Amino acid sequence: MDKSSALDYINQMFPTEASLSGVEPLMQKIHSEIRRVDAGILAAVRQQSNSGTKAKEDLAAATRAVEELMYKIREIKSKAEQSETMVQEICRDIKKLDFAKKHITTTITALHRLTMLVSAVEQLQVMASKRQYKEAAAQLEAVNQLCSHFEAYKDIPKITELREKFKNIRQILKSHVFSDFSSLGTGKETEESNLLQQLADACLVVDALEPSVREELVKNFCSRELTSYQQIFEGAELAKLDKTERRYAWIKRRLRTNEEIWKIFPPLWHVPYLLCIQFCKLTRTQIVEILDNLKEKPDVGTLLLALQRTLEFEEELADKFGAGTRSKEAGNDFEDTGESNNQAISDIRKKYEKKLAAHQGSESKEKDGQKDLLVQELGYVHIFGEIYYAGKHLPFLHKDKLCFQLIKLAAENYLSALMWQFNFRGIISSCFEPHMAVYVELEEKTLMENLEKLVQEETWDIEEGTQTNILSSSMQVTT
Predict the structure, then answer these.
(1) Which of 44, 120, 327, 340 has its CA 20 to 30 A from that of 226?
(2) Is the dihedral of CA 86, 88, 90, 93 positive or negative?
(3) For residues 251 and 276, is the Cβ–Cβ distance under 8 A?
(4) What is the pLDDT of residues 393-414, one digit of tens each?
(5) Alpha helices, DSSP H only, in 258-400?
(6) 371 — phi, psi (to 5°)?
(7) Has residue 156 got a pLDDT over 80?
(8) DSSP for 52-87?
């Protein structure tokens, strides 16, 4: 308070002289208040003093705690580095052990497969010596798969020895199969009841070997079948143009007689079809030779009859083996393939058609663009034969059996479809074209004689009552 206020307060508290008697109690009260305030101040000072000391103690404790925390962090970091080093060492040891385990597993697997390969080769050798073709065919597939696992070890002497032994066994099987098939058609099949079954089993072995073995076998079989035909119709008696019809009767009789026997061949081999192709080519060669060796012009009637019979025979073959009217056997063979593989076959076909077309295009420039259709067909046969053969020997395809089966089915089906593209029409009859001049001359001579006769017989008179100037001979000329 300011002085004026203090004076006012005192005058208010002691307005009269009588009221001064209350000064002493007031002073005691004020002193009491002052002591209370002093005590409060003293207590606050003491409390503040104690708080400062405690704050210092707390600050010191916090500093010690931080130091301890930093020490623990350094200790944890050190232990973490030690743990990391330990983990790396452990992982290094684990990796070594893992590699060791992998190598041991590979070694055990290789030794196991090697044992299986040795056993399989020995069993195959026994089967080959005993001509157990059915068992040998399955064993060949197994050995081929086992051999594919040792492609990386082919420089090892033991593997080289086994591969060479397997190669010799395949040659032995091939020679046995060819030897057994040489007896087909000689009449032994009627004497030995199990010969046909044995040959049917031998076909399984041929399919398990390289595609070239099947081609060679079928080619040899067709050549052997046509040997007697070649000998018969190259003789002086039947090597004549008027005996042409008997040639076709011979092959049709041969096909009909041996129909049951030739069922030993798998349908996909198309043996009758290939035999007819070879027969047509041989017949064409012989007929060309007959026509070229004629000392005089051929008789027109004989020439036309031979041509007519040839055209009829070609039409029969086209109906029997043609794409539009295949035989029931071939038709069933195609129906069994189903539509599920059509896309795969189409894709594979397009891919290799492009490659072959590019290859043939480069060659056509060098050879003036003259390419035989048969060369293209043989190119497809070679391509898909290689796919089929490679599919049996590539390890990754055997891991994916579906892929292998799809390629095998696509190759076989496409080869089967490709076979039907051969055109029988004109394969023999086209050789008659250079010698048809005698027919043209005869027709021309006949036409001129008829014209001359009509001219001589014509009266050149016009009938009365007609409105057109038409000669009567003109009607005969048009007919």
Answers:
(1) 327
(2) negative
(3) yes
(4) 444 444 455 555 556 556 555 5
(5) 271-292, 300-321, 328-335, 342-366, 373-393, 395-399
(6) -130, 135
(7) yes
(8) HHHHHHHHHHHHHHHHHHHHHHHHHHHHHHHHHHHH
C-alpha to C-alpha distance for 223 and 221, rounded to whole angstroms: 5
Cβ atoms within 10 Å of 408's Cβ, excluding its own: 16
Cβ proximity of 270 and 419 under 8 Å: yes
CB atoms within 10 A of CB 208: 21
Domain range list for the chain: 80-208, 210-321+401-453
Is-contact 317 276, C-beta < 8 A? yes
Nearest to residue 374, comparing CAs of 414, 441, 339, 423?
423
Query: Residue 430 pLDDT > 90, yes or no?
Result: no
What is the per-residue pLDDT across 2-61, written as a single tens digit (0 to 9) for each?
556 777 777 787 788 777 777 888 888 888 889 889 888 888 888 877 777 788 888 888
Highest mean predicted confidence (pLDDT) among 191-205, 214-228, 368-382? 214-228
pLDDT averaged over every residue in the chain? 75
Own/partner pairs, 422-426, CB within 8 angstroms, 24+ separation? 422/277, 422/321, 422/377, 423/318, 424/276, 424/280, 424/314, 424/317, 424/318, 424/321, 424/322, 425/314, 425/315, 425/318, 426/314
SS3 category, 127? helix
Tokens of 104: 């041991």
Q: Does domain 80-208 have CATH number 1.10.10?
A: no
Half-sphere exposure of 275 (CA within 13 A, CB side): 24
Give the number of residues written for the chain.
479
372 vs 257: CA distance, rounded Å = 34
> Up-side HSE of residue 94: CA atoms within 13 Å toward CB?
6
Cβ atoms of 411 and 384 within 8 Å: the answer is yes
- Chain mean position to CA 467: 79
Q: What is the pLDDT of residues 159-186, one digit of tens each?
A: 888 888 888 998 998 888 888 888 776 6
Contacts of 425 (CB under 8 A, 6+ apart): 314, 315, 318
Burial class (CB in 10 A: 0-12, 13-18, 19+), 321: buried
- Return the DSSP state at 139: H
Taking alpha carbons only, the member of 90, 178, 102, 169 closest to residue 136 is: 169
DSSP for 318-329, written as a single string? HHHH-SSS--HH
pLDDT of 446 reads 80
Could you tell me which residues come within 8 angstroms of residue 127 by beta carbon, excluding any fewer than 6 positions away?
A: 133, 135, 136, 139
Q: Are 194 and 178 in contact (CB under 8 A)?
A: no
Residue type, 80: A
| From 10-24, 282-296, 372-386, 420-434, the region with the lowest mean pLDDT | 372-386
